[in-house]
Amino acid sequence: MHYTRVKGILSAKNGMNLYRGCSHGCIYCDSRSKCYQMNHDFEDIEVKENAVELLEKILKHKRKKCMIETGAMTDPYIPLEQELGYMRKCLELIDTYGFGINILTKSDRILRDLDLLIRIHKKTKCVVQMTMTTHDEELCQIIEPNVCTTKRRHEVLKVMQEYGIPTVVWMTPILPFINDTEENLNGILDYCVDAGVRGIMSFGIGMTLREGNREYFYKNLERSFPGIKEKYLAAYGNKYQIPCPNSGELTGLLRKRCKETGMMSNENEIFQYLSQFEEKQKAEQIHLFDFVQ
Q1: Residues 167, 127: contact at Cβ < 8 Å?
Q2: Residue 286: what pLDDT?
Q3: Beta strands 67-70; 46-48: pairing state
């Protein structure tokens, strides 16, 4: 771990990353890619020490309320968050200033902040997005070794359902020749249906590989899946987009089950839902005023 001071904390689309780097150890992680110009070891987490104060300055003066997004590059609930509490402090600010929040994670540490998520969602909108790639628990521990397994993530989604907090599942990446099976997809979808998930992100069923994460991925394939690296090289070479050989069939299965159960499966539709800010208290006040009149 090391600290750095940054000039800004929100992107043009109101995305926020409090940390750079990760210790979850997921073998497929795109954030390792060299294009992101991370000039330190990936596991040597960079902490943006002035992130909380920067966020407060921005939220204080933002003219229009919006959804704040976090987790796109680094999971906000890495183990270090338990010690530092930056995410909790930011949620307190988001609650205080009346903004919404979208959180993408694969960690059950998010339950520590359940009280704040409930408070935010009562006033506006809080959406918890959970990555779920592998229904098989043993396989999950191989490809996502330092974070809770899919079964536990399903339990987290159930807690969110209990408190009326909407959820979206990122069913990605699906790794060719490893977890690209109907059995795996159906297992994950069963979890999603049971937890009342609003939508499933899949991005065509496959993964991406580029310089930086490709080398790390192949190293892990050689250790845990002998012979699979050669299959990747033969099928894809150095391509960035790595669709599963049966992506068409699996996408069809996904769309069919989502239609049957009322879950969204169109990425554009889901992104639109995630970005839409809602101010519930104001809407309730207007409705009450109309009733009194």
Answers
A1: yes
A2: 45
A3: unpaired
Q: Are 174 and 132 in contact (CB under 8 A)?
A: no
Per run of 10 residues, the mean pLDDT along the chain (length 293 residues) is 96 97 97 94 97 98 96 96 97 98 98 98 97 98 98 98 98 98 98 98 96 97 97 96 97 97 97 94 50 49
Burial readout 193-217 (b: 16 or more C-beta within 10 A, e: otherwise): eebbbbbbbbbebbbbbeebbbebb
What per-residue confidence (pLDDT) applies to 282?
57
Sign of CA dihedral 77, 79, 80, 84: positive
**pLDDT at position 289:** 46
Tokens of 280: 């519930």
Cβ-proximal residues to 278 (8 Å cutoff; 6+ apart), any chain: 100, 124, 125
Task: Tokens for 181, please give them.
Answer: 């099976």
Separation in Å, CA 98 to CA 66, 76, 260, 274: 9, 20, 36, 16
| CA angle (274, 276, 282) in 5-degree steps | 130
DSSP state of 109: G
Residue 161 to residues 18, 83, 164, 189, 194, Cα–Cα distance (Å): 27, 27, 5, 16, 10
Burial of 268 (0-12, 13-18, 19+ CB in 10 A): exposed
144 neighbors 26 (Cβ within 8 angstroms): yes
Residue 56's SS3 state is: helix
| The predicted structure's pLDDT at residue 280 | 79
**DSSP-derived pairing of the beta strands 100-105 and 126-131:** parallel
* Distances in whole angstroms, Cα of residue 59 to Cα of each of 11, 14, 151, 215: 13, 11, 36, 40
